[in-house]
Amino acid sequence: MVQPGKHTRSVMHVRKNDIVKVLSGKDKGKTGKILRVINKTGKVVVEKVNMVKRHRKATGKSPGGIIEMEAPIFASKVLLYADSLGKGVRTSTKILDGGKKVRVNLKNNLQLDK
């Protein structure tokens, strides 16, 4: 059972290692690679986007200090980036003859997955 107020999403429109473009927020217009997908909360961590500073205490292995790292953002704020078009595109899925599922551009059915 899902708790009220919690975001759950079983299927994302983006995957790890995809190049995405940020649609809104302080990093609007930036592109980056997805480092991690968090299905439970519907968020993604994008490389060099939504950078935050964390104060870490020194441990035996690592020194302490202020560490800059990426924080998760909602997956609805990113679009898959198509290199061939040079912009973010809305996608849908299409099943090929061999049974393979691929993502395609909604406007012109351009196949985005290899």
Strand content: 35-45%
Termini, distance in Å? 37 Å
CATH class bucket of one domain: Mainly Beta
Largest sheet: 6 strands, antiparallel
Structural class: mainly beta
Radius of gyration: 17 Å
Q: What is the H/E string?
A: EEEEEEEEEE
The beta-strand count equals: 10
CATH topology of one domain: SH3 type barrels
Assigned CATH architecture of one domain: Roll
Concise summary:
With 114 residues, the protein is mainly β.
Description:
There is one protein chain. The protein has 114 residues and is mostly beta strands. The protein has a domain at 19-86: SH3 type barrels. It is built from no helices and ten strands. The strands form three sheets. A six-stranded antiparallel beta sheet has the order 6-3-2-1-7-8, with no helix packed on it. 15% of the residues are buried. The model has no long low-confidence stretch (mean pLDDT 91).
